[in-house]
Each structure stands twice: as structure tokens, then as C-alpha cells.
Amino acid sequence: MQGKRKPNGHQEKRGKQSFRRRIEDRDHDYPNYHQEFGQLEGDTIVGYQHKSAVLTLVERLTKCMIAIKPAGRKASDIETALNHWLNPLLKHLFKSIIFDCGKEFSNWKAISNQHDIDIYFADPGTPSQRGLNEHSNGLLRKNGLPKETDFNTVSQHQIADVVQRRNNIPRKSLNYRTPIECFMDHVDDSMLSRLI
């Protein structure tokens, strides 16, 4: 068994990202991405016994967190959840998303084509390339979405409450403004309810 990462003949069935766009492509396409609104980092928080998940997104400029509850952990579940969230929004409100190399994001091409949003992938084994999202996930774990939670028994409303509390805490990096306040500089009130 030594050296085997997947013992007992386990085979991954959740698909693979083909021809994925690397993080260097994002740096080329958006040279000022760290000063632009609409650049997202995304990942999933996995629940009890890896049976459920919550999709998390963070807007880089405002550090505003968004959490979406998909029906499951499959690529099709993530695609459906993202489509449902992006459909009512204005085109080009969000310019790009960076994910890790998880199999749950293997339907990225369909999402990118449908919503005209650029999707990139961090290099394998380098969570620091999506450091803001990793840090935000840690805060959500601490503040109401711990690892032992079965997200199948938690509603979208309960998840949104946890995220809302975090988004209303002032942050030093935002000159002691809250992420929501900074986010509202770029969207109006009517859109906020559809986003978060």
C-alpha cells in the first residue's frame, strides 16, 4: 500500500478538466486584476464524511464572500448551482473565476461559455494562489460551517446568514470598512439581494 494515494482500487468518477486555463493566463488577460472589481476566487467547503458541500466565492477587491448550496458534490451539481446564481445577473459584472483543480469544476467550459465569464485554475498543490478564498473558507468554518456539518440538513438561508455575519465585520485591509460596504460601491441594492 505504500505510496498509493487511492488504495483498494478506488477510481475517480467525477471527470477531469481538459485544456484548463492556468493562472498565468489570468495574469496576462487581466494585468490589473488586483485593482479591478469582478475577479472571483472559488472553492468548495466539504461537509461530514465528504457527502455534501457548499460552493464559496470571494470577490478579490472587496473581500465579499458568497456561499451557494449545490444539490451535491458532482460537477453537474456545481454547474447547476453556478448557472442558477449567475443567470439573473448582469453580463460582465464578474469577469473571471479562479478555482482549484477539483473534479467538481470539470464542467467549467459550459459555465464559461453560457455566462461569458473567464474561468482559470490554480496550479495543483498551491492553495496560496487562491489565498483569499482559502482564508475566507477558514473563517466560515470557524463561524458556523465546521467540518462535521452535514450540509444536506442545512438550508441556503442558514448558510447565507453565516456569510452575512462575516461580510458585516470591518476589516483593516479595507480601511475598517465592511466587505458589504465596499461591495455596495459597485452594485445597487436591488442586485445585492440576488448576489448574497
From TrEMBL:
It comes from the Bacteria. InterPro entries: Integrase_cat-core (IPR001584), RNaseH-like_sf (IPR012337), RNaseH_sf (IPR036397), Transposase-Integrase (IPR051917), Transposase_IS30-like (IPR053392). Residues 1-23 are annotated as: Disordered. Residues 27-187 form the Integrase catalytic domain. Residues 9-23 have a biased composition (Basic and acidic residues). This is IS30 family transposase.
